[in-house]
Each structure stands twice: as structure tokens, then as C-alpha cells.
Specification:
Layout: H1 2-19, E1 21-30, E2 33-34, E3 41-46, E4 49-54, H2 55-58, E5 66-72, E6 79-86, E7 89-95, E8 105-113, E9 116-125, E10 128-135, E11 153-159, E12 163-173, E13 188-189, H3 191-200, E14 204-214, E15 226-228, E16 233-239, E17 248-257, E18 265-270, E19 277-278, H4 279-285, E20 292-293, E21 301-302, E22 310-311, E23 314-320, E24 343-348, H5 353-356, E25 360-367, E26 375-384, E27 394-400, E28 422-428, E29 432-444, E30 458-462, E31 465-470, E32 509-510, E33 513-520, E34 523-530, E35 543-552
Parallel strand pairs: 7-13, 19-22
Antiparallel strand pairs: 1-2, 1-3, 1-12, 3-4, 4-5, 5-6, 6-7, 8-9, 9-10, 10-11, 11-12, 14-26, 15-16, 16-25, 17-24, 17-26, 18-23, 18-25, 20-21, 23-32, 27-35, 28-34, 29-33, 29-35, 30-31, 30-34
Organism: Sphingobacterium deserti
Pfam family, one: PNGase_F-II_N
Keywords: Disulfide bond
Length: 553
């Protein structure tokens, strides 16, 4: 009888121990300042499994998408990742190496966390020093990250001495509930496919152009893309969903030469449609139908400045093609140099979200060239949740002298030869706070004394008072040599693509200047841009491409 009772007691203890499970809540902190988060990190662990999740995720209240991690304790090298995209869509993957990727070094350091005796292990991940504090006081293993899963129960994870995940509560529970526990997944894919799907789910991706040709020819056609100026300008209507306040937006362009060997001016632009007439009207009906700008140099320049009833284009990104990237990669072989296959240009354009959110808009790309092969480009707009510092509810297109319709009758901006330079009036319906002028400038004139190679001071005047003055100049062009396989080479060992220029290099973006103009009262104002443009030499001449957009609250 005594042996029977002893057997029963042992069985009950064994069942109890085997069925023991724990719920551990964690909080994050940085420099000992607790991060405010109403959805704390939560770990469920038992002899059978470990689940890394969050409090809201266990109640299906976490915002989509959210990720859950599982360790199968019957096969502790099996680490599952599950992302829930919506109530009826999820994707999982199995990683059998993640738990053993980092070598842990055990130390003799100890301390108490929540009354449990903890020991320290250390490692390094991507040059970050990691401390893991774990206890063996409990009959389970687990961790809030993949590190230390098999040491014991990790109660604190410290990165670089200041970023911490610390247990705030250890609660014994009967079992890991079925709706949280490891299970069979409806769709399981390889790790690379999984990571790609998860990454793309975190932002809005709006494809605009895919391997479209920009060339000097009427032969290139496409059903979904409008082409202007003998094919050197392409435009597409795209729908942008309503986006949350504080989001960030990026344009990304990939360019390859398709036969054109030269460095060319390029622009990604957005049609401003806040007035009765837009730049698109001129593209369709002829540039001479748009308002002209004249400052006394004897020329008329269509569509470049804001007038009552007309708005020029917003320039999202100014870029410059390199000398023949991709198409001419086999023309010159140099020891120790491997030419790039394409150029990727990517730029933050969050300040324009207020004019595209929840709307259908026209976005275009221009590359000035006279080549039948021209260039090939792919363009996309991506929008990411976050806390952008570049959110402006009001955006006003004021001027843009980049002649994107060069092959359609829009003249080079040579008017800076006059003292007046570029002058434009605009009117504010209401008082404006924290006004910024988003200003892009590049100088051109491609011979030794042309403005491309001579530094020239830019002066910006607001209501006839000097607001900002600087000399735009790039000295880093040699950094992009591997994008320029067909660049001219000189006897002194330099290449044309190495040479410093007036705020641009072959194969780069020209970033905007954000010029603070302060608060402006409602009513009429003026902006004047003065640049001492160089004199022509024979048939060669200098010109400046400048664009200006007002951002304000």
C-alpha cells in the first residue's frame, strides 16, 4: 500500500512538473528610462515550447502585421516565425540555425532579478555587445529574443549597456493556452520568401514605371504611360491611398543606359494641380499655351514660374545619369575596377505627402537626351509609417526652371544673365508659419569656363531682402567613378566624371536646400533668385536649373 501511494505521489509530481508553464512580462528601457508601451513583450514557456509574443497579440488586438516566435522544445533547434497580416492571412517559416548562430560566453557574474538568482552570458551581434541574464531556479527555459533560449530562463537582455529588455513579472500558469501555443501553420515558406513578404507588408509600395524607355524617338509606345517631347518625358497617373499623419515617403529610381553615353539632367516631378492651369496642359496642348516668363534678356520662357491661375511642377528629385552605365560596361576594362550595372537613386520626399494623400496624381520622369536608345528607368513611390519631421500641411509650387519639355519647346533657363535673374510673385490666402523654401540648384555650361565648372554664388531674396546666400559646389564626384564606364579620360589621370561641378556629379542626386523664411503674413510676396551667370562662348552657353517649393504650416 505504501509503495502504491509513493508511486501515485511521484506520478502526480511528474505530471505537475511536466505541465508547469510560465508567463513572463517584460518592459523595454533605454538609459534606464522606461519606454512607454501599452503592449508589453510577453513570453510563455513550458517543457514543450516557448512563445515570444505581446499582450495584445494574445488577445488578437495588436495592429497588423504582427510577428510571433516559437521554439519547439522537443526539437530545440527549431525556431518558427509567424507573421499575422490580417484576420485571415498569415505566413510562417522555420529556421533551424538561428538559435546556434551566436556563441555565448558564460561568466561568473551574478545578480538577483525578481528574487531569482541570475547568471550572465555575453556575446556580440553585428558589433553590438550583448549581456544575457538567465536563471536556472525555474524548471523551464526561454528568452524574449532568440539568444539564450537554451541557457535557462532569460530575465534580462542588455544591448550595448543601455538598451534593455527586463522581466517585470513571472507568473506560474497551468499551461500555455491553445490559442497562443505552437501549432501547425496554414502556409509555411522558406526564410528568404518569408522575410521579403514581411518587409513589404510594413509599408505602401506604389510602382510607377517598370523598365520604361526614355529616349529621343516617337517609336517607343506604352498603353499605360504618356510620352511627351519625342519620348524624353514619361508621365503616369497613379492613385495614392490616404496615409497617416507623420508618415514618410520615398521615391526610388533605377536607371540604366540603353544607348546614350552621356551624363544627362534628369528629374522626377509631380504635376501641381492647385490652380486652373497645370504643366500637363502645356504638355498636351503645347508649351506656348502656358504663361511666359521674361526678364529683359529677349527670350520668353514657358511654364517656369507661378502666376495667377497657373502652377509649375513640383520637382521631387533632381538626378544626373552617369556616362553610359550598363550599356557601355564592356567598352573599357581597367584593372581593379568593376563597373556598376545600374544606378539607384532614392530620396525622402515626405514634405509632399499632403498634396498626394488619398488622391490620383500625375508623376513623371524626364531625361534630356538625343539618343534613339536613350535610357531605361524603373520608378516607385513608397510610404512608411513613422514620425516624419518633414510633414507640412501646405505646399506651394513657386518656380522650376528645369526645362523638362526641352524637346517640346521649353527653352534652357539662361535668364540669370540679367541682374533681375528669376523673380516671381505669389500670394498667401492666410498667415503662414515656419515657412521653408525647398530649393534645388545646379549650374550648367559644359566647357572649361562654363558655369558647370565655375563656382557661382546663389542669392535668394524674399520681398527684396536677402534671405540666403551660398555657393553650390560638389567636390566628391570621383566617388562615383564605377558608375561611369564611358567617361572621358585625360592625360593627367583624371576622368571627366571625377571633376567637381556646380552642385551635381554624374550618377548622383542633387539634394535640396531647406531655407528658413520665418513666418509670413497673408497677402502678396516675392522671391528673387540671383546668380552671376557666365557669358556665352561661341555657340556654348551657361544656364541654371533651379526649382523652388514653399512649405509651411
Amino acid at each position: 500500500m505504501k509503495n502504491y501511494l509513493l508511486f501515485i505521489a511521484v506520478m502526480l509530481i511528474s505530471i505537475q512538473l511536466f505541465g508547469q508553464a510560465y508567463k513572463i512580462s517584460y518592459q523595454r528601457s533605454y538609459n534606464d528610462k522606461i519606454s512607454q508601451n501599452d503592449d508589453p513583450l510577453t513570453v510563455f514557456t513550458s517543457k514543450e515550447q516557448t512563445v515570444i509574443t505581446s499582450e495584445k497579440a494574445t488577445q488578437s488586438l495588436a495592429p497588423y502585421p504582427y510577428e510571433t516566435f516559437y521554439v519547439d522544445r522537443s526539437n530545440p533547434s527549431h525556431y518558427y516565425r509567424l507573421t499575422t497580416f490580417s484576420a485571415d492571412k498569415e505566413l510562417a517559416t522555420l529556421d533551424t540555425s538561428i538559435l546556434s548562430r551566436n556563441t555565448l560566453t558564460l561568466t561568473k557574474d551574478t545578480k538577483k532579478i525578481l528574487g531569482y538568482h541570475c547568471k550572465k552570458a555575453i556575446t556580440a551581434v553585428n558589433s553590438n555587445s550583448i549581456e544575457i541574464w538567465y536563471t536556472n531556479d525555474l524548471p523551464v527555459k526561454g528568452s524574449p529574443t532568440e539568444l539564450g533560449q537554451n541557457l535557462g530562463l532569460v530575465l534580462e537582455y542588455v544591448r550595448n549597456g543601455n538598451s534593455k529588455i527586463t522581466a517585470t513579472n513571472v507568473e506560474k500558469i497551468d499551461r500555455v493556452s491553445q490559442h497562443v501555443a505552437l501549432r501547425k501553420f496554414s502556409l509555411q515558406v522558406d526564410a528568404l520568401t518569408y522575410q521579403d513578404e514581411v518587409w513589404k507588408s510594413r509599408f505602401i509600395q506604389i510602382p510607377i514605371f517598370q523598365d520604361e524607355q526614355i529616349n529621343f524617338s516617337e517609336e517607343a509606345k506604352s498603353d499605360s504611360v504618356m510620352r511627351f517631347a519625342n519620348g524624353t518625358v514619361i508621365v503616369k497617373k497613379v492613385k495614392v491611398p490616404e496615409v497617416k499623419a507623420g508618415s514618410q515617403a520615398f521615391v526610388q529610381l533605377i536607371e540604366k543606359s540603353n544607348g546614350d553615353a552621356y551624363d544627362r539632367t534628369g528629374s522626377v516631378f509631380l504635376i501641381a494641380d492647385d490652380q486652373a492651369q497645370s504643366f500637363l496642359d502645356g504638355m498636351k496642348n503645347g508649351m506656348n499655351t502656358l504663361p511666359m516668363y521674361s526678364n529683359g534678356d529677349g527670350e520668353n520662357y514657358p511654364g517656369m514660374v507661378r502666376t495667377v491661375g497657373y502652377s509649375p511642377i513640383y520637382e521631387l528629385m533632381r538626378f544626373f545619369t552617369p556616362f553610359g552605365v550598363s550599356h557601355f560596361n564592356d567598352r573599357l576594362t581597367l584593372k581593379g575596377k568593376t563597373w556598376q550595372d545600374s544606378v539607384l537613386y532614392r530620396q525622402d520626399v515626405s514634405e509632399f505627402l499632403s498634396v498626394v494623400s488619398g488622391r490620383e496624381v500625375y508623376i513623371g520622369t524626364y531625361i534630356g537626351n538625343y539618343d534613339k536608345g536613350g535610357h531605361r528607368v524603373s520608378l516607385e513611390l513608397t510610404i512608411h509609417p513613422g514620425s516624419s519631421k518633414m510633414e507640412y500641411p501646405h505646399v506651394l509650387s513657386v518656380f522650376n526652371s528645369t526645362n523638362v519639355m526641352e524637346m517640346g519647346g521649353q527653352t534652357y533657363a539662361r535668364f540669370f544673365s540679367q541682374e533681375k535673374g528669376l523673380e516671381v510673385s505669389f500670394e498667401l490666402a492666410n498667415d503662414a508659419q515656419d515657412v521653408q523654401l525647398r530649393y534645388i540648384t545646379t549650374g550648367h555650361g559644359g566647357w572649361g569656363e562654363g558655369d558647370e565648372f565655375v563656382p557661382k554664388e546663389n542669392s535668394i531674396y524674399l520681398d527684396d531682402k536677402l534671405a540666403f546666400q551660398f555657393t553650390p559646389w560638389r567636390t566628391d564626384c570621383g566617388s562615383y567613378r564605377l558608375y561611369n564606364p564611358i567617361s572621358g579620360n585625360f592625360q593627367n589621370g583624371l576622368s571627366s566624371s571625377d571633376l567637381s561641378r556646380s552642385n551635381w556629379c554624374p550618377g548622383t542626386i542633387t539634394t535640396p536646400n531647406y531655407i528658413h523664411l520665418g513666418d509670413l503674413k497673408a497677402g502678396k510676396h516675392s522671391i528673387r533668385v540671383h546668380i552671376p551667370q557666365g557669358e556665352p562662348e561661341g555657340s556654348s552657353f551657361s544656364f541654371w536649373n533651379v526649382s523652388g517649393v514653399l512649405l509651411y504650416r
